[in-house]
Each structure stands twice: as C-alpha cells, then as structure tokens.
Amino acid sequence: MTNQLFTPITLRDVTFENRVVVPPLCQYSSDDGACTDWHMLHLPGLAISGAGLVVFEMTDVEPIGRITPLCAGLWNDRQEEALARVIASCRAYGHSKLGIQIAHAGRKASTTQPWKGGKYLPPDQGGWQTIAPSAIEFGEGYGAPRAMVREDFARVLDGFVNATRRAARLGFDACEMHGAHGYLLSSFFSPLSNKREDEYGGSIENRMRFPLEVFRAMREVWPATKPLGVRLSCSDWVEGGNTIEETVVLSRELKKAGCDFICCSSGGIVAAVPPLIRANYQVEFAERIRKDVGIATRAVGMIFTGKQADGIITEGRADMVAVGRGYIDDPRWAWHAGDDLGVVAPYALPTHTARSGNWVKNKLAAQKAERN
Predict the structure, then answer these.
(1) Per-position DSSP letters for 111-170, written without gaps between them
(2) Which of 23, 58, 151, 171 has the fewest CB atoms found within 10 Å of its own CB?
(3) Contacts for 92 with CB less than 8 Å, ≥ 6 apart
(4) What is the dihedral of CA 90, 96, 98, 103, to 10 degrees?
(5) By the 8 A CB rule, do 298 and 264 touch?
(6) Whole-angstrom Cα distance, residue 208 to residue 205?
(7) What is the CA 230 to chain-centroid distance, rounded?
C-alpha cells in the first residue's frame, strides 16, 4: 500500500488525522517559564500546517530543570494560564492534535541559549546548581552536578506529577515523558552518567527504576482515555553506554506500565556527536522496538521528504514520523509532503488559495519541467 503517511492512527481514544508529528522544538523564549508572544506566533502556525500532532516544546517541572533561564515550565498557575491562551489559539484555527513533553534537564541545565553558545551558566551569573544521579559533569566547561539525595527524588517526582496534572487540565490530547538526550531521566538509565551504588544504580533494573517510577506516577494522573508516551535515547553511541538491547528492555517495562508509544531518538548523554548522521539514521531503533516490544513507535531524525517519510510507515518501520528541523525550515512541510504523494494534506480554510484550484498542479508541473 502507498500513501500511508496520511492515514489516521488511533492511540487509546484519540485519533490523529495522519502520521506526521511536529516534535518538541525548544524555543528558549519563555518568561520565567511562561509562554510569550513568540509562542502565540510559533505554535498556532504549526497547528494549521497539516501535521496530525504538534507537540509543545520540552516543558520543565521545576526552575532548576530548565536548560536555560528562558525555557518553558509548568510548575505554577501563571505558566498554566499562558499555555491556555496559546492552546486556545491553536484550537480556534488549527486542526492538529496537541501534545506536550514533560521534562527535567538534570546535569545539562543552567546554560545560555544555543545562539549564545549554549555555555554553562554558573550560579553567580544567573544559573543554578544542577542535579543528576551522580556528580559527573556532562562535558568540559559544564559545572559538576550535585548527586541527588532522597529529598530530590521526592521533589522531582512531585514536579512531574504536578506538571502532568496541569497538562491534563489544559486539555492536551497527548503527553510524553522526556527520557532521552542525557537529560535527568535519561542520565539515570545510562551507565555513563549513573554511578550510584544504591537501588537506583548499577544493574539495568536499578538504572531504569526512577524513570519507571516517574512514568507510573504520570500515568496515574494522566487521563486513561489519552495516550502517554516516552522519548528515549535508544543508543548512547559510546562504548560502555546505553544500547538498543537495553532500550528494548526498558520499553517492555514502560509498555507494562501503560506506555502507548516510544519516540525513538539517540545520543545526548555525552558531548560527542553520533557517527554517520544521515537520512533515516535512527529509524532502525523505531523498527526494532516496534517489532520486539509490540508498541507504537515514532521515527525521528533527518527525515526530509514526504516519500521518505511515507516509506518508513508503509514498510512497517514505525507508526509515526517526527519532522523537527524540517518544520522549522518549511512550516508547511506536510503540505509539500502531500504534494510529493499526490495527497492534499489538511489545511486551514483561510489558506485555501494555496491548496485548491490550479496552484498546486501547476507548481508541480513547473518543478518537474525545471528538473528536466
């Protein structure tokens, strides 16, 4: 079968119009964790773009959980009210389902924005003391985190639960726990960053204990009718780090706990860049977990075209595809993916002049003539 990219998918009681996902895209533009006018421009534009699901950016559960002082949060009423305004605009004009990613940056927190170098921000310059499973810094130039103690475990767990409750109250259609990219929960699972000698470190059973505790607590307060998933780093790309085989084990336990999908990413636990970054370089992880665990998966990373994305779905390698940088580059990515496949992607009625009549047909004909 062809053109499976634009077929619906149902997780629990929520049906997504197609398999295209806009993943969380950190904007580093919040005001003490609250959405600003930038988010009012950015997110509603994505919600009218043809994607089946738009996931709001990594949203942190406490102030020290932010990557930068300008990252999003959901630990107080002001932040919830600001999010509500953005959601209302997305709902009023868009057609995409809306999701949110709940997170804690752990030892990778307290930095400047990427366009300012992403450098470590010490406490005397507006930063803060970071926390992690062990007192091991992320990389050269980063401040050493403080190893978490019992009070930290309880506070962080409560933070994830509080943020999940608020997200449910806001009416998000889907939610995901961030367990990837070397952030706090990911750093518990990786043996490179977790050197604890208590029940939270050592064996794989111990290293996945806290992420599973957090997920189970989130599942308890997230609506039973709505999907809750997890983003995982399926490989650390470093010898001695987390592997796809261990990620399959964690994914099985997450499924038992009520997880509905795994977003299959990789890397981020150390500053080293994964080798051979190329088209579809992470799709093998989505395919493996989908096959071995029997859970819906989302493929991410270097997915450029509609035909490429459709191939991932039609070949049974994943159930959804996430297009991040592609959407930043082309905020109407799904429209153009549909053009590639001969499908009219969803669109907001006021934009009909670009989706109806002779515009698309003649545009494609002109592009074909130019290539020839």
Answers:
(1) B--GGGT--B--GGGT----EESSS--SSTTSPPPEEP-HHHHHHHHHHHHHHHHHHHHH
(2) 151
(3) none
(4) -110
(5) yes
(6) 6
(7) 8
For residue 336, count other CB atoms closer than 10 A to its CB: 17
End-to-end Cα separation, the chain, in angstroms = 28
Q: Tell me the β-bridge partners of 100.
A: 56, 175
pLDDT for the residue numbered 58: 98
Greatest CA span in the chain, whole angstroms?
A: 67
Taking CA atoms, 292 is separated from 10, 51, 190, 322, 327, in Å, by 21, 28, 21, 21, 30
Predicted TM-score (pTM) of this structure:
0.96
How many other C-beta atoms are found inside a 10 Å radius of the C-beta of residue 366?
10
Annotated catalytic residue, options 28, 120, 142, 183: 183
CA distances (Å), origin 163, targets 62, 95, 147, 221? 9, 25, 23, 10
183 part of the active site: yes
What is the number of residues in the chain?
A: 372
pLDDT digits (tens, 9 = 90+) for 295-341: 999 999 999 999 999 999 999 999 999 999 999 999 999 999 999 89
Token representation of residue 68: 């930068």
